[in-house]
Amino acid sequence: MNETTGLSCPIPFGRYPNILLAHGGGGKLTGELLEKIFIPAFSNPALDARHDSAVFDLKGARLAFTTDSYVVSPLFFPGGDIGSLAVYGTVNDLAMAGARPLWLSAAFILEEGLPVNTLWIVAQSMKRAAEEVGALIVTGDTKVVDKGKGDSLFVNTAGIGVIEHSLDIGPQSVRKGDLILLNGDIGRHGIAVMAQREGLEFETGIQSDSAPLWDLVSLLLSKGIRIHCLRDLTRGGLAGALNEIAQAGQVRIALDESSIPVREDVQGACEILGLDPLYVANEGRLVAIVDPGDGKRALDLMRSHPLVSEAKIIGNVTEDSPLVTMKSKIHGSRIVDMPAGEQLPRIC
Amino acid sequence: MNETTGLSCPIPFGRYPNILLAHGGGGKLTGELLEKIFIPAFSNPALDARHDSAVFDLKGARLAFTTDSYVVSPLFFPGGDIGSLAVYGTVNDLAMAGARPLWLSAAFILEEGLPVNTLWIVAQSMKRAAEEVGALIVTGDTKVVDKGKGDSLFVNTAGIGVIEHSLDIGPQSVRKGDLILLNGDIGRHGIAVMAQREGLEFETGIQSDSAPLWDLVSLLLSKGIRIHCLRDLTRGGLAGALNEIAQAGQVRIALDESSIPVREDVQGACEILGLDPLYVANEGRLVAIVDPGDGKRALDLMRSHPLVSEAKIIGNVTEDSPLVTMKSKIHGSRIVDMPAGEQLPRIC
Predict the structure, then answer these.
(1) What is the pLDDT of residues B45-104, one digit of tens each?
(2) Which of B50, B105, B208 to mutate to test the interface with A (most CBs of A within 10 A)?
(3) What is the pLDDT at residue A4?
(4) Would you call B13 an interface residue with chain A, using a CB distance cutoff of 8 Å?
(5) Is the Cβ of B232 closer than 8 Å to some Cβ of chain A?
(6) Which residue among A25, A120, A152, B53 is least packed, with the fewest CB closer than 10 Å?
(7) Can you tell me the distance from the alpha carbon of B65 to that of B161, in angstroms, rounded to the nearest whole number?
(8) Residue among A17, A124, A140 whose CB faces B115 most closely
(9) If you measure CA to CA, which chain B residue comes closest to A158?
(10) In this structure, how many other beta carbons lie within 10 angstroms of the beta carbon of residue A28?
(11) Residue A194 per-residue DSSP state
(12) Residues of chain A neighbouring B143 (CB-CB closer than 8 A)
């Protein structure tokens, strides 16, 4: 029961009555907050679709709308910073609905004592990132909290995009036989942030893969690829994203481990740190689930895009029951579960 | 210079190179961040209008878009909580563009250790508030930060509204002769939060005025009132809001102190605390600047609304130079300046 209000939730929270870092990890506990708190409170068709963006109609236009807060620590990391991350992240969530990003908001929660110069650098980074994707930052807000009640700088971005095609992109459109494409090697963002935060040095200097994905999605759409679902791989990594799709679309996804690109230095860092690259966050990677007849052409298109180094078909949709499995390089097949705890907190 | 990036802003930040609580107070220092950092970085017509919401066209529809983060402390206060505040605040910013609120986002930054039950209570409050105004919460996000790196719970809401009239509501439309209407007594929200936070007891139990304003605005619009500008009185209070309008619209606003309602208990609390009610935050108050020919009718309409207790015409627009003055109850006329410091941090 809450002391001030005297209220208490009728649904028990089980083993975890208090918020853990894992509640923000994009895995099982994040899902529990959604199931037990947010869906019951806010339920409506756009929210219940549980896609990266809400999609709705307005006077004949189809719009997508999304939001994310960014609490990455440190603010600056190899290959990016909280500013570009906040712009790309929201742009990518719009792109995952097949929406062209148009307008963004930017809201800052600053901790007292933050050098104003740091805010300037972050704003400049947001400016460049927004220009790169052709979106405008049109509204914003700044709040300040007392020293010790925040952590230098948090950013929230929300975004509005417009859907200019007639596909219904989302887990509900995934079908048996569909092919699953991935646009590059996984795990770099999480490892880059982790290394910077912990002062670890990896020989090759792993850079975040942070990048905007709308241009790639736009290419696939413009060439008529029958895209059934898109999802960017952020918190929870590839495993988290595919489990979400499997659950929401009630489909079984079968992966082939040997087709999933992981750079040698990232694999090495993961082994040292005891991490599984399948669960490590990315910020410029997506899976595209496409009609089997378009798989080869989609792959060629992806590979023709300047931001894509190593696109692959990594698996397919095999049946109508919610599960993700993987044919491993050595051991036969195993279940790839939803992430349970939090491997790397605050990577976005 | 920033150590990690080696970058530094070309514009000097003057006396305050580090963020103060006053940078979030809605006064001069908040304005400086806008002038020196955000406008130069993001400049575009929607942002440069410096209105509560950005307004733009999409395929024949006129949309408004806004965002605010909420860091109020404590989370629960007499007359409201962070959840309803976050919904009403964003709805009110849309309403100030004359936009009907349709879709909201809700993003949470939780501090590790927060009782999950507290999040549930806040979500329930947001649910009720959204239902009350007829808006849907369609997308969201949850992040968790380590204990000591946040303050229990921050909320960001962004909102999309649709503009169904042809008025151009904003500081640019304010003209000499316009009348300034206020929809009720000022200063209650700030005092209610402050009292709760500091454990002060006022005999009468001052409640926040937190309330949604769209219904009132909708009433004025539906009756054809020629509204030139609307602004809700949040951080910075009545003085802050009117100074913003005076600056943005390049007009002089003359107030009559005797017409501005302040409850006796609020006046008393302000005197004890050394505050000026003109600068204390409200969350359910607006000024409507209307064509002089519509002033009386607008006042009658306001007074007919169930949420309005004490509407008044508090002044008028007198000339084309940016200034706010007030005829005081006893001393002749004085300048009402933009708030300079921060009287009451974290009231929204």
Answers:
(1) 888 888 889 999 988 899 999 999 999 999 999 999 999 999 999 999 999 999 999 999
(2) B105
(3) 81
(4) yes
(5) no
(6) A152
(7) 6
(8) A17
(9) B158
(10) 17
(11) H
(12) 24, 69-71, 346, 348
B278-307 burial, b at 16+ Cβ within 10 Å, e below that, comes to bbbbbbbbbbbbbbeebbeebbebbeebee
**ipTM of the shown complex:** 0.96
Domains and CATH numbers, chain A: 44-163 (3.30.1330.10), 171-335 (3.90.650.10)
Q: What is the pLDDT of residues A16-73, one digit of tens each?
A: 999 999 999 988 999 999 999 999 999 998 888 888 899 999 888 999 999 999 999 9
- Of A61, A114, A140, nearest to B19 by CB-CB distance is A114
What pLDDT, on a 0 to 100 scale, did the predictor assign at position A203? 63
Within 8 A of A78 by CB-CB distance, chain B residues are none
Phi and psi of A333, rounded to 5°? -105, 145
CB contact under 8 A, A140 and B13: no
Residue of B nearest to A94 (CA): B139
Q: How many beta-carbon pairs below 8 A join chains A and B? A: 326
User: Contact, A119 vs B19, CB < 8 A?
Assistant: yes
Residue with structure tokens 């495993």? Answer: A239
Report yes or no: B86 and B106 within 8 Å, Cβ to Cβ: yes
In this structure, chain A runs to a length of 348
Q: Whole-angstrom Cα distance, residue B298 to residue B316?
A: 14
Torsion-angle region of A139 (φ positive above 0: left; ψ -120 to 50: alpha; else: beta): beta
* Tokens encoding A233: 């791989």
For residues A237 and B126, what is the distance between their CA atoms, to the nearest angstrom?
A: 30
Sheet with B136-145, side-by-side order of all strands: B54-58, B61-70, B153-163, B99-111, B136-145
Contact A63 B112 (CB under 8 A): no
Report the C-alpha gap between B244 and B56 in whole angstroms. 21
What is the band of A15 on the pLDDT scale with cuts at 50, 70, 90? confident
Q: Is the pLDDT of residue B2 over 90?
A: no
Q: How far apart are CA B191 and CA B275, in angstroms?
A: 9
pLDDT at residue A127 in the model: 97
Mutate which of A11, A50, A145, A196 to test chain B, going by most B C-beta atoms within 10 A?
Answer: A145
| Residue written as token pair 């910073």 | A81
- Quick check: helix, strand or coil at residue A87? helix
On the question of pLDDT at A135 being above 70, the answer is: yes
Q: Does A43 touch chain B (CB under 8 A)?
A: no
CA B147, B189, B128, B100 torsion-angle sign: negative
Task: Tell me, yes or no, if A244 comes closer than 8 A to chain B by beta carbon.
Answer: no
Contact B124 A23 (CB under 8 A): no
> Are A148 and B148 in contact (CB < 8 Å)?
yes
Inter-chain residue contact A109 with B59, CB threshold 8 Å = no
B70 touches chain A (CB under 8 A): yes
Taking the CA atoms of chain B, what radius of gyration do you get in angstroms? 20
Residue whose structure tokens are 């409050």: B125
Interface of B with A in 103-122 (CB under 8 A): 103, 105-121
- Closest-approach residue (CA) in chain B for A159: B158
Q: Give residues with Cβ within 8 angstroms of B146, minimum separation 6.
A: A21, A151, A345, A346, B111, B112
Neighbours of B310 (CB within 10 A): 12
